[in-house]
């Protein structure tokens, strides 16, 4: 004989309960100190869940009655997302948002299995030949674009951090240089600059002038993230690498660090990774690099 599950609280109509929970989580997120993009995503995911639940209320009338009903409803929604070909990362983000909604709005602590995220593959770094082509193409486009590419390629900056740079974020002397990058979650780090980057950034500053303000200026004012991306795309086209994006230059920076002997802790610090696991992917050599190593050793 199967035991009957007794709800821990009176089961209000599920759509009304879901609407109340959505209102409550909106109020909570207004006070929450999460990144703006995360807050936006959580609101979107909670709304999507409540909308889905409204269409499946008959199958899940106890979705806000107790933990058993809540976990059954969220598990069904998880299956729905996976069938709709949502990526594992998106599914897990959605589950995190809805778990937070149940916790803070319905006082139900649910535990739903996360989607399995595939192990990331080898970083899509440029070959040394491609890197040389990018260097030459950037130099031909002028001092500003050459300096932008060098901040991405020789300091590992994200496009957002590159676009955010002010003149005061650059400290270059005759023999040394460093740049201050603002990373995710208000993380700030100083990254040393190699000679080639120091020379090109200094050349741009001589043209730009020493007045305070955004480092990258154009005819219409400071460059945005989109402007930085357009510079890299144009350099890539000129170098015979169509579709080149800023993050590929960051991947190349991290890969060169590892090839030059940097350990995971160095790579983590220089790239501003919160976790050393994020840096570990750069320590997996791909087939092309493996073949190059074999050729060099046995030539």
TrEMBL record:
PROSITE patterns with a match to the protein in the record: CB, TYR_RECOMBINASE
Alphabetical UniProt keywords: DNA recombination, DNA-binding
Domain called Tyr recombinase: residue spans: 121-295
A GO MF label: DNA binding
SUPFAM superfamilies in the cross-refs: DNA breaking-rejoining enzymes
Record domain Core-binding (CB): where: 19-106
One Pfam family, short name: Phage_integrase
Alphabetical list of InterPro entries matching this protein: CB, DNA_brk_join_enz, Integrase-like_cat_sf, Integrase_catalytic, Integrase_recombinase_N, Tyrosine_recombinase_XerCD
Biological processes annotated in GO: DNA integration; DNA recombination
Annotated protein name in UniProt: Tyrosine recombinase XerC
Organism for this UniProt entry: Phytohabitans houttuyneae
């Amino acid at each position: 004989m199967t035991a009957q599950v007794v709800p821990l609280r009176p089961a209000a109509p599920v759509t009304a309960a879901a609407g109340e929970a959505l209102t409550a989580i909106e109020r909570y997120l207004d006070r929450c100190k999460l990144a703006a993009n995360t807050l936006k995503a959580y609101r979107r995911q909670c709304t999507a869940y409540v909308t889905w639940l409204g269409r499946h209320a008959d199958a899940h009338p106890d979705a806000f009655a107790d933990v058993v009903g809540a976990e059954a409803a969220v598990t069904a929604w998880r299956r729905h997302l996976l069938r709709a070909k949502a990526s594992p990362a998106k599914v897990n983000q959605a589950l995190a948002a809805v778990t937070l909604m149940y916790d803070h709005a319905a006082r139900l602590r649910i535990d739903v299995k996360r989607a399995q995220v595939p192990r990331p593959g080898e970083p899509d770094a440029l070959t040394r030949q491609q890197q040389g082509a990018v260097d030459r193409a950037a130099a031909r486009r002028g001092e500003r674009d050459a300096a932008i590419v060098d901040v991405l390629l020789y300091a590992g900056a994200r496009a957002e951090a590159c676009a955010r740079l002010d003149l005061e974020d650059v400290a270059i002397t005759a023999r040394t240089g460093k740049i201050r990058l603002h990373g995710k979650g208000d993380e700030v780090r100083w990254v040393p600059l190699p000679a080639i980057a120091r020379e090109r950034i200094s050349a741009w500053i001589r043209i730009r002038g020493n007045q305070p303000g955004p480092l990258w200026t154009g005819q219409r004012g400071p460059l945005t993230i989109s402007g930085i991306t357009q510079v890299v795309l144009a350099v890539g086209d000129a170098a015979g690498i169509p579709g080149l994006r800023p993050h590929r230059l960051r991947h190349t920076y991290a890969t060169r660090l590892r090839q030059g002997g940097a350990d995971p802790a160095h790579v983590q610090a220089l790239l501003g990774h919160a976790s050393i696991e994020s840096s570990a992917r750069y320590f997996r050599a791909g087939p092309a690099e493996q073949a190059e190593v074999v050729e060099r050793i046995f030539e």
